């Protein structure tokens, strides 16, 4: 799937954007100052695409855009659950997509912000002058996660390889018991605390006093905004995908707006019976791939592209993986704003990764609390909350789905598209990730 | 040592004064909708106890809640983070004049909880933190229990460890709630049960996860959350949405069916009784009374059961055993405090020299407290063995699920194993646990002082070498101190800290702080040969050797000592300590104190060492130790040695009882002498050191409490009789004689 997506990037048409080449210096309608700094390379997002995020079970993709084969210097992909056979999935995907086998590729992993890491690695390569054009992306196959044999079975099988005589082999085979055969399923659980993410999210919501109703309302909001965006054709980063042996899929298939009554009927999924996190107010795990083409501004313009946005400052943060597992946005947002010299009110577009409705609400409450800012963040006063009129207006992970490794690129591409559509200048992406980590990035609109 | 260890987990029952205020200070309530939230908070203490004031206010509040028509149900919760109710107020029990008064106290408690049990409005106990003794009895009288899954939430009936029984309905309600076997297990061991286990046992109905930081601190928010959930439960029960009678599982039904046979029940009583007798040698009355109360309740009905409970409670409270155990409990609390104040500098890096059993043991109890620990040895093989010991200790905890494998690995990252002195300049304290030889100790001290900072404390772990002799070569004697750990370090609670005249107060404060961090019970004693613990043990072991020479079989010797209440017999103890160590100590102290430390011939021990019988570690000592075999046989070759050194027993002082008192009186006399000479600061530390370090019978509460309860005059009388036969080894010391002359003189008030 990832290779097909790359393929589509490769065949991205160039012709129409030549005209825009000279528009670079013309002042835009927005009066805010640009974040460009002397001596720092401008790095731009040229294009972003993704497959529809599908509920586990379907796969496929069709072409849409293209990139000249030799223009890309490097390829970086993010993924979370790695298939043993394709441990460097970026390389396999690149070759499968017909990119030159002379382009190196590597894979990064950082839980839910893996593709953010892929993008920022690309930014780093370009800023350092190593590369001019990098494809960054993310891919996740939740419908085919590697399931391991039990440790006992693995040990027996490995010893079997070493066994020399038939007698040794037979005695090893004879030692296999029923217990050997039970497989190990990968779980969305923290290694350090053995707590599943949903359980942690439920505790987080409770810690911030987020009610079930608040969570359900936010989930309904996400689904209805996504539905509206889909119907208005705003989700233009989606490219159709042919599922082998089935139909072409061209839409995210997890968007299901429902009523509050229906939402209220669901039983808690993790903490029973008094928990508040349900299947309906959590993001669902899907297959999906996303990719972006990142270039230095000169290179993009030289090649005749019309960049979509500047990628500006970004930060990574990390905190206690037990009790603050999903508070990444609270910590990363003020930090990235400080770096960029902006304030919360300067931002026109917010795209936060919605892992759980309870997690988003908890983050919003944490950002609105002086006590939390003073006690845990070492700040004098609260971070402040983003305006809901600017927040995840085209749906989010709750409604579109959440292929771990691919969500980051979707967030950035959505910000770029929304800035263009809504006429804003600055956008902010923030996300949390397993391990108690978090990320935020400031994106600036490219002058129209 | 089970008895000694068991004492270590004594619950936190605590003493306090009551405020004489008319307004309610301990219990208050607030009505939320149709649910009354009853909050307990003792303003004068860190924990809640069922004191007179608490009970009085609770009865008042309950009355108001029952009378309020707007209230349909209630939640009982503590406002203290980490404590629901830690138990009854011990001082209230001790203040009673006689058994009848205590029995009356018990009946009042029973009555109050009976009203709670029969409450027309369901009461939900919301438990966060310790729920022990009377607290647990209160909780199980309620209709429903919600508990937080926090590590601090523990439920249990620790009364038995204070020589008491659960006297407010516990012996009657627990068997009904968790079944006979589990109830006996809880009440006879007194162990703490964590919330998740309690849920499985049926002791708790509903669990709540502890929360992290939110808009309040984690502790506060967790209590609020617990309250919210408990209110939902209370409302659910009142509306009949939550059933109180749970559908029993198949196993439960089968168990109930089996238990319905009197024959089966009788078999259980018999088995449990047998076990108790075997473990306690009948020296502790409380476990037997617990069995009696449970049996009476089950077989003759609640009226007889509750009566038996209150009367036995009254009787137990006035036994010397209970007084001894409560004394130990108070002593333990006192020895968990640093009377030297806060040290100027916290020890963040601790270096340990010698990765043997002792060194690695010290590392094991240090590294998991977040202290960076350097373990240094001179040989790679020794270091590897030591590191493996630390790993194994942590891994065993992982297997028992008290820590996760991730925590194990992250704890181990605090441990650095090395063969050189690299990084010692950062050490705040160095503890040496090298071989007990003054020359080696001197060499090590000089090496260390050459590499460490001037602020670094040098602690020496020795069981007998005087600290001032070791400190003689030090450039900074004010930074030298003795820290005598007991093996195995992770199991034995005691730490004996030895100060010289030159040791600075800050050095002592720092050593105590480190010991407390390691979870130790600490006594601080003066310097001298054998300090306190080794010095008390040596004469008793010398006497034990003489008893063996007089023809008493090691097994018989063990039986005599354990029957007196020692958790480990004298012969076994010698094997555990190591015959070579015992010989070494006997010789050293013999030189220092002369004939008073005589008795058995040191050559018996030396011959054993020469033949390789060094005790358990060498596989042979008084007994033969075979790996995997639990039955230990007397070492057949020891007979020849004892034959060679045979002494004639004097029948006048060789009855079983006389042998026991010969062993004990020498121990006790030496302890009193330590107090007389100022080695000991106070009798309390003497009792704690003897019980927790040497296994002095807990039922007697330590040598000083033993003198108080047995009578100094009676002890002196016995000693005079032994003195007539054996000489000055049994001459009572002056302080003991003073107490014998004046019966109003007591070590413990």
TrEMBL record, chain A:
It comes from the Eukaryota. One of its GO terms (molecular function) is acetyl-CoA C-myristoyltransferase activity. Keywords: Acetylation, Acyltransferase, Endoplasmic reticulum, Fatty acid metabolism, Lipid metabolism, Membrane, Mitochondrion, Mitochondrion inner membrane, Mitochondrion outer membrane, Transferase, Transit peptide. It catalyses: tetradecanoyl-CoA + acetyl-CoA = 3-oxohexadecanoyl-CoA + CoA; dodecanoyl-CoA + acetyl-CoA = 3-oxotetradecanoyl-CoA + CoA; an acyl-CoA + acetyl-CoA = a 3-oxoacyl-CoA + CoA; hexanoyl-CoA + acetyl-CoA = 3-oxooctanoyl-CoA + CoA. Residues 305-444 form the Thiolase C-terminal domain. InterPro entries: Thiolase, Thiolase-like, Thiolase_acyl_enz_int_AS, Thiolase_AS, Thiolase_C, Thiolase_CS, Thiolase_N. The keyword Cytoplasm does not apply. Mitochondrial trifunctional enzyme catalyzes the last three of the four reactions of the mitochondrial beta-oxidation pathway. The mitochondrial beta-oxidation pathway is the major energy-producing process in tissues and is performed through four consecutive reactions breaking down fatty acids into acetyl-CoA. Among the enzymes involved in this pathway, the trifunctional enzyme exhibits specificity for long-chain fatty acids. Heterotetramer of 2 alpha/HADHA and 2 beta/HADHB subunits; forms the mitochondrial trifunctional enzyme. Also purified as higher order heterooligomers including a 4 alpha/HADHA and 4 beta/HADHB heterooligomer which physiological significance remains unclear. The mitochondrial trifunctional enzyme interacts with MTLN. Interacts with RSAD2/viperin. This is Trifunctional enzyme subunit beta, mitochondrial. It comes from Amphiprion ocellaris.
From TrEMBL, chain B:
GO terms for biological process: fatty acid beta-oxidation. Its EC number is 1.1.1.211, 4.2.1.17. Its main location: mitochondrion. The keyword RNA-binding does not apply. It catalyses: (3S)-hydroxyhexadecanoyl-CoA = (2E)-hexadecenoyl-CoA + H2O; (3S)-hydroxytetradecanoyl-CoA + NAD(+) = 3-oxotetradecanoyl-CoA + NADH + H(+); (3S)-hydroxyoctanoyl-CoA = (2E)-octenoyl-CoA + H2O; (3S)-3-hydroxydodecanoyl-CoA + NAD(+) = 3-oxododecanoyl-CoA + NADH + H(+). Pathway: Lipid metabolism; fatty acid beta-oxidation. The record marks 137, 159 as: Important for long-chain enoyl-CoA hydratase activity. It is found in: Mitochondrion inner membrane. Residues 530-625 form the 3-hydroxyacyl-CoA dehydrogenase C-terminal domain. The active site is at 496 (for hydroxyacyl-coenzyme a dehydrogenase activity). The record marks 484 as: Important for hydroxyacyl-coenzyme A dehydrogenase activity. Gene3D superfamilies: 1.10.1040.50, 2-enoyl-CoA Hydratase, Chain A, domain 1 (3.90.226.10), NAD(P)-binding Rossmann-like Domain (3.40.50.720). One of its GO terms (molecular function) is NAD+ binding. One of its GO terms (cellular component) is mitochondrial fatty acid beta-oxidation multienzyme complex. Residues 350-527 form the 3-hydroxyacyl-CoA dehydrogenase NAD binding domain. Keywords: Acetylation, Fatty acid metabolism, Lipid metabolism, Lyase, Membrane, Methylation, Mitochondrion, Mitochondrion inner membrane, Multifunctional enzyme, NAD, Oxidoreductase, Phosphoprotein, Transferase, Transit peptide. Belongs to the enoyl-CoA hydratase/isomerase family. Heterotetramer of 2 alpha/HADHA and 2 beta/HADHB subunits; forms the mitochondrial trifunctional enzyme. Also purified as higher order heterooligomers including a 4 alpha/HADHA and 4 beta/HADHB heterooligomer which physiological significance remains unclear. The mitochondrial trifunctional enzyme interacts with MTLN. This is Trifunctional enzyme subunit alpha, mitochondrial. The lineage of its organism: Eukaryota, Metazoa, Chordata, Craniata, Vertebrata.
């Amino acid at each position: 799937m990832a290779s097909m997506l790359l393929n589509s990037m490769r065949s991205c048409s160039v012709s129409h954007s030549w005209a825009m080449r000279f528009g670079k210096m013309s002042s835009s309608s927005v009066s805010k100052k640009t974040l460009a700094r002397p001596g720092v390379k401008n790095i731009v997002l040229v294009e972003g695409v993704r497959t529809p995020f599908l509920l586990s079970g379907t796969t496929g993709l069709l072409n849409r855009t293209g990139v000249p084969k030799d223009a890309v210097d490097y390829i970086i992909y993010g993924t979370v659950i790695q298939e043993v056979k394709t441990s460097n999935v970026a390389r396999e995907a690149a070759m499968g997509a017909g990119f030159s086998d002379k382009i190196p590729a590597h894979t990064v992993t950082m839980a839910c912000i893996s593709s953010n890491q892929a993008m920022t690695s690309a930014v780093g390569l370009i800023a350092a002058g190593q590369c001019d054009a990098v494809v960054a992306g993310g891919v996740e196959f939740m419908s085919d996660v590697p399931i391991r044999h039990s440790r006992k079975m693995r040990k027996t099988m490995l010893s079997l390889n070493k066994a020399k005589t038939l007698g040794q082999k037979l005695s090893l085979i004879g030692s296999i018991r029923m217990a050997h055969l039970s497989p190990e399923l990968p779980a969305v659980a923290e290694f350090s605390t053995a707590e599943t993410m949903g359980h942690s999210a439920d505790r987080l919501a409770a810690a911030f006093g987020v009610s079930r109703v608040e969570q359900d309302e936010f989930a309904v909001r996400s689904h209805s905004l996504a539905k509206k965006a889909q119907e208005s054709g705003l989700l233009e980063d989606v490219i159709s995908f042919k599922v082998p042996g089935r139909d072409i899929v061209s839409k995210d298939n997890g968007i299901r707006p429902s009523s509050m009554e229906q939402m209220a009927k669901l039983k808690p999924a993790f903490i029973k019976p008094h928990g508040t996190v349900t299947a309906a107010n959590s993001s669902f795990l899907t297959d999906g791939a996303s990719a972006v083409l990142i270039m230095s501004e000169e290179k993009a313009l030289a090649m005749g592209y019309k960049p979509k946005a500047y990628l500006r400052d970004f930060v990574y943060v990390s905190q206690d993986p037990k009790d603050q597992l999903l508070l990444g946005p609270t910590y990363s947002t003020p930090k990235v704003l400080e770096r960029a010299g902006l304030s919360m009110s300067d931002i026109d577009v917010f795209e936060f990764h919605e892992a759980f409705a309870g997690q988003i609400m908890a983050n919003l409450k944490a950002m609105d609390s002086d006590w939390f800012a003073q006690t845990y963040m070492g700040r004098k006063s609260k971070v402040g909350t983003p305006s809901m009129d600017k927040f995840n207006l085209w749906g989010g992970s709750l409604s579109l789905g959440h292929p771990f490794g691919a969500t980051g690129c979707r967030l950035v591409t959505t910000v770029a598209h929304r800035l263009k559509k809504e006429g804003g200048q600055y956008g902010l992406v923030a996300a949390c990730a397993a391990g108690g980590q978090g990320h935020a990035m400031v994106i600036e609109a490219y002058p129209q | 040592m089970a008895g000694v260890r068991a004492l270590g987990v004594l619950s936190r029952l605590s003493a306090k004064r009551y405020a004489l205020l008319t307004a309610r200070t301990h219990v208050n309530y607030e009505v939320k909708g149709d649910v009354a939230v009853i909050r307990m908070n003792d303003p004068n203490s860190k924990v809640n106890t069922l004191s007179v004031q608490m009970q009085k206010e609770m009865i008042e509040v309950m009355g108001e809640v029952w009378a309020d028509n707007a209230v349909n149900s209630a939640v009982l919760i503590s406002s203290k983070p980490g404590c629901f109710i830690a138990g009854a107020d011990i001082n209230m029990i001790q203040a009673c004049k006689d058994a009848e008064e205590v029995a009356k106290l018990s009946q009042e408690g029973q009555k109050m909880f009976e009203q709670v049990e029969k409450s027309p409005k369901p009461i939900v106990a919301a438990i966060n933190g310790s729920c022990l003794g009377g607290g647990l009895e209160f909780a199980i009288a309620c209709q429903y229990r919600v508990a937080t899954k926090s590590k601090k939430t523990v439920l249990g009936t620790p009364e038995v460890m204070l020589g008491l029984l659960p006297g407010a309905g516990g012996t009657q309600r627990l068997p009904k709630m968790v079944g006979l076997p589990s109830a006996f297990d809880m009440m006879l061991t007194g162990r703490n049960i964590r919330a998740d286990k309690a849920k499985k046992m049926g002791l708790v109905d509903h669990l709540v996860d502890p929360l992290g930081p939110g808009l309040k601190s984690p502790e506060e928010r967790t209590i609020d959350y617990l309250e919210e959930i408990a209110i939902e439960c209370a409302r659910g029960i009142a509306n009949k949405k939550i059933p109180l009678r749970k559908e029993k599982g198949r196993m439960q039904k089968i168990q109930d069916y089996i238990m319905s046979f009197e024959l089966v029940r009788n078999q259980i009583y018999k088995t449990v009784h047998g076990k108790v007798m075997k473990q306690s040698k009948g020296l502790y009355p409380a476990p037997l009374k617990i069995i009696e109360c449970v049996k009476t309740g089950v077989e003759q009905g609640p009226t007889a059961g509750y009566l038996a409970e209150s009367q036995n409670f009254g009787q137990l409270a006035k036994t010397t055993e209970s007084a001894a155990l409560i004394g130990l409990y108070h002593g333990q609390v006192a020895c968990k405090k640093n009377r030297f104040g806060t040290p100027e500098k916290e020890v963040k890096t601790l270096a340990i020299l010698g990765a043997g059993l002792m060194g690695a043991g010290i590392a094991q109890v240090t590294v998991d407290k977040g202290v960076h620990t350097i373990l240094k040895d001179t040989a790679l093989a020794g270091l590897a063995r030591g590191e493996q010991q630390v790993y194994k200790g942590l891994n065993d905890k992982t297997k028992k699920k008290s820590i996760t494998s991730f925590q194990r690995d992250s704890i181990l990252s605090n441990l650095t194993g090395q063969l050189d002195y690299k990084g010692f300049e950062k050490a705040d304290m160095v503890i040496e646990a090298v071989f007990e030889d003054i020359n080696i100790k001197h060499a090590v001290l000089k090496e260390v002082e050459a590499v460490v900072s001037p602020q670094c404390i040098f602690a020496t772990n020795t069981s007998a070498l005087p600290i001032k002799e070791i400190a003689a070569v030090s450039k900074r004697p004010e930074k030298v101190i003795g820290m005598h750990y007991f093996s195995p370090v992770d199991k034995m609670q005691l730490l004996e800290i030895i100060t010289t005249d030159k040791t600075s107060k800050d050095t002592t404060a720092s050593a105590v702080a480190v010991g407390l961090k390691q979870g130790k019970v600490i006594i601080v004693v003066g310097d001298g040969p054998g300090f306190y613990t080794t010095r008390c043990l040596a004469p008793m072991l010398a006497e034990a050797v003489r008893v063996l020479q007089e023809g008493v079989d090691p097994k018989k010797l063990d039986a005599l000592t354990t029957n007196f209440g020692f958790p480990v017999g004298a012969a076994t103890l010698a094997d555990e300590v190591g015959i070579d160590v015992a010989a070494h100590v006997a010789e050293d102290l013999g030189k220092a104190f002369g004939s008073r430390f005589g008795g058995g011939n040191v050559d018996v021990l030396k011959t054993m060492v020469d033949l390789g019988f060094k005790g358990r570690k060498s596989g042979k000592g008084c007994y033969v130790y075979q790996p995997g075999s639990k039955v230990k046989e007397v070492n057949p070759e020891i007979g020849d040695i004892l034959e060679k050194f045979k002494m004639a027993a004097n029948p006048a002082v060789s009855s079983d009882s006389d042998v026991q008192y010969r062993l004990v009186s020498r121990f006790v006399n030496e302890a009193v002498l330590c107090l007389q000479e100022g080695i000991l600061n106070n009798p309390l530390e003497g009792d704690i050191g003897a019980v927790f370090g040497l296994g002095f019978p807990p039922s007697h509460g330590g040598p000083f409490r033993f003198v108080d309860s047995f009578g100094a005059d009676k002890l002196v009388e016995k000693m005079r009789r032994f003195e007539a036969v054996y000489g000055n080894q049994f001459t009572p010391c002056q302080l003991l004689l003073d107490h014998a002359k004046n019966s109003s003189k007591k070590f413990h008030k």
